[in-house]
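Notes to self after the Tuesday call (sharing in case useful).
The group wants a holo model before anyone commits to mutagenesis around the pocket. I volunteered. Ligand is zinc ion. Logging inputs and output together so the record is complete.
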Amino acid sequence: MEAAAIRKAHRGATFVRADLHIHTFGEGGSYDVQDASMTPEGVVRTAIQKNLHVIAITDHNSTGNVRRAIAAAQGARLLVVPAVELSSPGGHFLVYAQGAEDVERIVARLDFSEDCHHRPGWAHFPPESPGPRGPS
Ligand SMILES: [Zn+2]
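Result:
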């Protein structure tokens, strides 16, 4: 269905401009981002300039820049979804949460095969871990 047809068939849905897979630069960001303008504040500024309504910071195995992005978006018409992109032997997967503390709690329970905050590596739950749905 084309976008115009979707809008015409509107049944209460709201359409928003969103980018739910963004990596950031710096210590709390992704090891593979070289563009120094991609700080959490820079990403938020660009998202606002591009008229996005929702973004997610999905750095590789790191949530270090999520709170900075949320803070940078305070007072703006932009929702920052706390998230992380986890590396695994089967590929990368994106995890979204309601609050920064939720995604930070998930990452804190993981073991990493190497220092994958700065280079590729795997994230996994330790054998004794109850996993992502374990006791809080
Ligand atoms: Zn990615």
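Two things stood out.
Residues 107 and 113 are 13 Å apart (CA to CA).
Helices lie at 3-8, 40-49, 66-72, 100-108.
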